[in-house]
Structure formats: C-alpha cells, structure tokens
Design brief:
The structure holds 2 protein chains of 2 kinds. Chain A is α/β, with parallel strands linked by helices. Chain A has 3 helices and 9 strands, in the order H-E-E-E-E-H-E-H-E-E-E-E.
C-alpha cells in the first residue's frame, strides 16, 4: 500500500510541475488544476485535472503534457488523464507562490477571495477594469492609475 | 516619483546601464516618439493579424482547429488592445487617432499581413513560419527592452505566441505526414510565405539605429533573420519540403546556411500599402471601424438613452 501511495505522490509532484502553456514557469499545480492522482499495484495511474475555464483552448495540450510527465516517473506503466469538467475552479485555488509568480513575472493579478485586486506591478489598489476580456477569455484587462501599466486580472 | 534627466546624454547613460523607463518618468521627447512609433506599428500588426486570423475561423477544418483559430484571434486582438493602451498612454496620439491613421493608410502594419492566405495550408505556413519569425523578433525585444510597460506586455505576448507555435507545429505535422496532395499544398504555400517571413525582419539595421541605442530592440535585423534561417531551413528540409530560394546553399566550412540575395521591393511595396492584399484588408478593417462608430458614440454618451 505504501508503495502505491508513494507512486501516486511521485506522479502528483511530476504533474504539478508541468508548466501552463500560457504561463511559462508557473506549474499547473500552482494554479490549482491538479485535483486527484491515483495509482495501483500494476503501475496504472489516473490523473484528474480541473480546467480553469471550460472553453480553455489549451486543454488537449495540457492533457498531453501531463500524460508525458507522469510517464517519466519510475514504476508508471499506463496513464489516464481526465478533465473534471463538473468541478468549479476559482482563483482561490491558486497557491501563494503561484500568485507571486503570476504577478512578478507576468504582470497578472489574482483577486483575493473578497475580490480585491492589487496592481501586480506596483501593488497599488484601485486597478480599473478596462474590458471584460483580453487576449484570453480567462482574464480581464485593467489599467493601474498609479503606475499606468496595463495589467490583466484572472477571472473567477 | 517622477525621474528626470538633465540631458540626453544622461538619459542615454541610464538606458545604456540597463535602466528601465516607466510612464511616469520625464523621458526625452525623442525617446517617447521612437518608442511610440515602434509600439504603434506592433499594435497595428497584431490587430491586422487578428483580423486575418478571424477570416479562417469558419473555414478551419474541424472543431479542434476552429477552437485553436478562435483562441488565436482572441489572443491577437487582445494583444492589440494591450499595446494600444501602452501606446496611447505615451500621449502622442489617442487610440482613435492611431486606428484612423491605420485605416487611412497613413501608418504601417507588418508586411506579412499584406498578402492573401489562399488555402488552409497558407494558414499553416503562417502559424508555423510567420509566427516563428515574429516570435524570434519579440523574444529579442523582450529580453532587453527599456520601456517597462511594453516589456511587461511582451512577456505575456511571447508566452502566448509560444503556445501558438505548438499548434503550428502540430498542424505542419498533419500536412508533412499527409497525402501527396496535402504535401503539395503545403509546398505551394511555402512558396508564397517563405519570402514574406524572411523579409519580416527588415533590411540590415543602420549602424546608428536609435531603436538599438535605446534598447527598444536588442539585436540587429540581420542577426535575427539569420537565426530564423538557421533554425527553419533544416526543419523544413527534415520534413521533406523544399525551401523556395534557388541560391540557398550550405556552407560546409562555416557550418551554416547561406541565403541567396533578397529582393526588398515586395517589402517596400507593403510599406506603402501596395502589397497584393493591402487594399482589401484595409477596406475590410476600416469598414468595420466605420460601421461600429455608433456603438462607440453610444458608449461615450451613457446618458443619451435616458428619458428627458
């Protein structure tokens, strides 16, 4: 049993580190997309992922990258990757490290659970939403009146 | 906290030492104009590129490809949106002025959007080659760019273009591993797009290019062009396609590919909006701009619909 748990844990670590195709350097684990990882005695592994939004055009690509990452783990024989399209993803699933990486490296803000948004560039409050969608359907476009940078805000 | 510089030399020193320039800084007007022109051209190109992409949503084969083209259109228009914000903030022109200038043919957009995409294989050639050429340029700018807001937007653009590249590679593989007809279609499209992709980098940079001095660009045009050639000539050949340059040869001693002479006349024609598809594209985009004028006017007058 412990071997199976260790295998599932090793796969979870490998899978969590798979970078998001649109956020290089940010793992899908940091984004809260890895829901469950199961393994059995025969090295069969099942990974369940949660999409940040259903229409995300990167789902196939992420699934392929996750399967490839899981296969690199010693002891894994077969891999199945599912998207749990019934689960509700929300920005609160993003880890503190994920938030920091998104802000510092990509100028993308993640709202706090209360909905507050700080400018990812200068940390000022009062970021003004300019449009509901930007380059991606999962982000709003906003402008920070303090530092005058256009920034993007993850949608809930 | 407004930073000022006593002289152009002091500003040059700041930028030369790797210093960043932010919107709130009192930057020299020459820098402001130069960075504005560069970002305006980039914004125009993203917009015209997105509109080109949009034409293929309905024609893309299959749901997966349609979804990819849809997402790419969203990306390009979104990039234009962000870049017009950065450009407008510089205070040289408003967004409306930039768009009016673009559609009236007073400003430019990248050469690759002045050509017609004839078949789906053209779209694949664009996704595989033209996007790759653009990405090579943008990566080089992003690395050193001195203007903070542009660098930050470029960071995300480069990430998203990298994602498009993966779609492009997958689509290319479909053609490369496909039927004789599919392979012929792609070879044909390559004949139309190799030249524009190579010319996208522009003629060799001038020795005193202010874009290089102020780190708006990091590398000379010819260096970037060569990087593209050294990467994509072997790749295309490995898939069994022929690079449409009769003078292309491999220099054994130097271990590199050497292109034949480049005819810059087609590039210069696009600068004057005299490319093969320039007029149609500008008319389509400008027509949409005119047709949606009433929406913008209504948005600017939120009280207009209220009962008196």
């Amino acid at each position: 049993v412990t071997a199976v748990v260790a295998l599932a844990e090793a796969v979870r670590t490998a899978v969590a580190a798979v970078p998001d195709p649109e956020y290089p350097g940010v793992g899908i684990g940091e984004l809260g997309m890895v829901e469950a990882v199961d393994a059995d005695d025969d090295g069969r592994v099942e990974v369940v992922l949660v999409p940040t939004f259903l229409g995300c055009p990167a789902l196939d690509l992420i699934r392929a990258d996750v399967a490839a990452a899981a296969r690199t783990v010693t002891g894994v024989r077969t891999v199945e990757v599912h998207w749990d399209k019934g689960a509700a993803w929300a920005p609160v699933r993003i880890t503190p490290r994920g938030r920091r990486l998104l802000a510092e490296d990509l100028a993308v803000a993640v709202p706090t659970p209360s909905g507050a948004v700080r400018c990812p560039v200068c940390a000022a409050e009062g970021v003004e939403v300019v449009s509901e969608f930007g380059p991606s359907l999962c982000r709003r476009v906003a402008r920070c009146p303090a530092c005058r940078n256009p920034v993007e805000v993850v949608r809930g | 906290m407004v930073r000022t510089w006593d002289s152009l030399e002091a500003f040059d020193g700041h930028v030369g030492d790797g210093g960043m320039v932010e919107p709130v800084d009192a930057m020299p007007d020459a820098y402001r104009q130069e960075v504005f022109r560069f970002i305006e051209l980039h914004a125009n190109s993203e917009l015209m590129g997105g509109l080109t992409e949009r034409d293929w949503i309905i024609k893309a084969p299959g749901l997966r490809r349609k979804q990819a083209v849809l997402a790419k259109t969203q990306d390009e228009i979104g990039h234009a949106h962000l870049l017009y914000m950065v450009a407008a903030d510089l205070g040289v022109k408003t967004r409306a002025e930039m768009l009016e200038d673009l559609f009236a043919g007073r400003t430019r957009f990248h050469n690759v959007f002045h050509y017609a995409a004839v078949t789906w294989a053209d779209q694949v050639a664009i996704a595989y080659l033209v996007d790759a050429a653009a990405l090579i340029s943008q990566q080089a700018i992003f690395k050193v760019c001195s203007y903070g807001p542009y660098k930050r937007v470029l960071r995300r653009i480069v990430a998203e273009e990298g994602f498009h590249m993966r779609h492009g590679e997958e689509m290319l593989l479909t053609f490369a591993e496909g039927t004789a007809l599919q392979r012929a279609m792609f070879q044909d499209a390559l004949g139309r797009w190799w030249g524009p992709a190579v010319q996208l980098f522009g003629p060799d940079s001038a020795p005193d290019d202010p874009l290089l001095r102020w780190r708006i660009k990091s590398e000379r045009n010819e260096v970037l062009r060569d990087r593209f050639v050294q990467k994509y000539v072997p790749l295309l050949r490995s898939y069994g396609f022929e690079v449409p340059d009769p003078d292309l040869r491999y220099d054994e001693e130097a271990g590199r590919w050497v292109m034949g002479p480049i005819d810059w006349a087609p590039l210069r024609a696009t600068f004057k909006n005299l490319g093969p598809d320039s007029a149609r594209r500008l008319a389509t985009a400008g027509g949409s701009w005119q047709a949606t004028r009433w929406v913008r006017e209504a948005l600017e007058r939120p009280d207009a619909g209220r009962a008196a």
